[in-house]
């Protein structure tokens, strides 16, 4: 029996075929232009075809693509040095994806306790609604049955507690606990923010019990909230952090960052990756940082975020029958719909605006960080027309 596609059926794809991108725009094969406020699910941090990134990739492509980690890779040294200069971290391990960055983070935490003579401390406390990736360990860390089912026994050592419930975290800590792992803003879970106080309390609990605090900033990091990393708003420092998506601006790149102390167990031979830290990814990652760390860039993100946030708040006031709540921080925003979010998404797409579904009936807006105030207003105008369309459709249905 031949299938209609030779591809796995694992993705529910929209029937859209894009040929190229320009800044915040994606252009379909038939020439239709879409305003891309999905940005590859927070990946295209600098939009599409950013000239500085294109130039960096092309220049590296002319030199060398792949070396392996048998040798020194200068781009790794420079990108790691820059990341450690602007974060809590002393050490960096490069990966190709978010899930691999999380795998490295979990392994780093377990090895930390192992190296200190406590191999029994390998349990990680995680949170309901979390998403950490699709590997066997990260589906266990995320704890969502829909991703775990059918893939054999859940990997041991991961315990979920309710998001934001500090008493539940304290209760879950025992002699086998190694670390607490949290997304400062849950993305797939529905743009759910951990409060500053909660993050501070988690830091304090980790200090009290000798645990490592691991942050998953794969989606909320790299400028998305208007600071380089979301946890900076809470004034805390993690021990380990997983980063990906925006750091590569569309090129596959992830990183696990750690303090010297947390990374102490990761000695030669304990971890590795064929492609992790390859010269092409390093060239692009360095180019992304050139832009994001430039004077005024994060301020620009905060300014545009404000325009967006105010516009969304006013839409919520005008369409209380369509929009229940606006969530998020910076350019990581969520519209909790009152109607089925699939209806709103379809209406938004009909306006040639791209958004991303998430849990709790939320639609995510994750515009590229280079979005201008005028482009944000264009997006808001499209959202307004979409809300009108949904309202009149549900009015028709009621009539
Ligand atoms: C918070 C978070 N962690 C981890 C991942 C996994 O990243 P990847 O798909 O690159 O493996 C994602 C992907 O959506 C994510 O949003």
The helix count comes to 12
Which structural class do you get from the secondary structure elements?
Answer: alpha/beta
CATH class of the domain at 51-292: Alpha Beta
CATH topology of the domain at 51-292: Aspartate Aminotransferase, domain 2
Read across the widest sheet, the strand sequence of neighbours is 4-12-11-10-7-5-6
Net shape: globular
Low-confidence region ranges: none
- Please tell me the overall pLDDT: 97
GO molecular function: identical protein binding; N2-acetyl-L-ornithine:2-oxoglutarate 5-aminotransferase activity; pyridoxal phosphate binding
Modified residues (N6-(pyridoxal phosphate)lysine): 245
Subunit structure: Homodimer.
GO cellular component, one term: cytoplasm
What topology emerges from the helices and strands here?
Elements: E1 18-22, E2 25-28, E3 33-36, H1 39-42, H2 51-61, H3 74-86, E4 91-95, H4 98-115, E5 123-127, H5 136-142, H6 145-148, E6 158-161, H7 166-172, E7 177-182, E8 185-186, E9 192-193, H8 196-209, E10 212-216, E11 240-243, E12 254-258, H9 279-292, H10 297-318, E13 323-329, E14 332-337, H11 341-350, E15 353-354, E16 356-358, E17 362-365, H12 373-398
Parallel strand pairs: 3-15, 5-6, 5-7, 7-10, 10-11
Antiparallel strand pairs: 1-2, 2-3, 4-12, 8-9, 11-12, 13-14, 14-17, 16-17
């Amino acid at each position: 029996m031949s299938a209609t596609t030779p591809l796995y059926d694992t993705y529910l794809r929209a029937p859209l075929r894009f040929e190229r991108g320009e800044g915040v725009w994606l252009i379909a094969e038939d020439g239709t232009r879409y305003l891309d406020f999905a940005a590859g699910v927070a990946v295209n941090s600098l939009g599409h075809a950013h000239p500085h990134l294109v130039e960096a990739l092309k220049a590296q492509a002319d030199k060398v693509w792949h070396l392996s980690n048998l040798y020194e890779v200068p781009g790794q040294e420079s990108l790691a040095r820059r990341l450690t200069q602007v974060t809590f971290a002393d050490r960096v391990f490069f990966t190709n994806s978010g899930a691999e960055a999380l795998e490295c983070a979990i392994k780093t935490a377990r090895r930390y306790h192992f190296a200190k003579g406590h191999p029994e401390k390998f349990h990680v406390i995680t949170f309901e609604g979390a998403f950490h990736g699709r590997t066997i360990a990260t589906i266990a860390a995320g704890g969502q049955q829909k991703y775990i089912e059918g893939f054999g026994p859940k990997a041991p050592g991961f315990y979920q507690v309710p998001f934001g419930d500090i008493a539940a975290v304290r209760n879950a800590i025992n002699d086998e606990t190694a670390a607490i792992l949290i997304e400062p803003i849950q993305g797939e879970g529905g743009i759910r923010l951990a409060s500053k106080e909660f993050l501070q309390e988690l830091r304090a609990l980790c200090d009290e019990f000798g645990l490592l605090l691991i942050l998953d900033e794969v989606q909320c990091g790299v400028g998305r909230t208007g600071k380089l990393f979301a946890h900076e708003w809470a004034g805390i420092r993690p021990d380990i952090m997983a980063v990906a998506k925006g750091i590569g601006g569309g090129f596959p790149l992830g990183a696990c960052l750690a303090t010297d102390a947390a990374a102490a167990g990761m000695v030669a031979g304990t971890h590795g990756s064929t492609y992790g830290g390859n010269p092409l990814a390093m060239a692009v990652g360095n180019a992304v940082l050139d832009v994001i760390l430039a004077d005024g860039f994060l301020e620009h993100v905060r300014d545009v975020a404000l325009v967006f946030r105010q516009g969304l708040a006013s839409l919520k006031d005008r369409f209380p029958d369509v929009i229940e709540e606006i969530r998020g921080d910076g350019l990581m925003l969520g519209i909790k719909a009152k109607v089925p979010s699939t209806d709103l998404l379809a209406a938004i797409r009909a306006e040639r605006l791209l958004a991303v579904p998430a849990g709790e009936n939320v639609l995510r807006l994750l515009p590229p960080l280079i979005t201008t105030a005028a482009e944000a207003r264009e997006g808001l105008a499209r959202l307004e027309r979409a809300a009108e369309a949904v309202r009149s459709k549900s009015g028709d249905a009621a009539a």
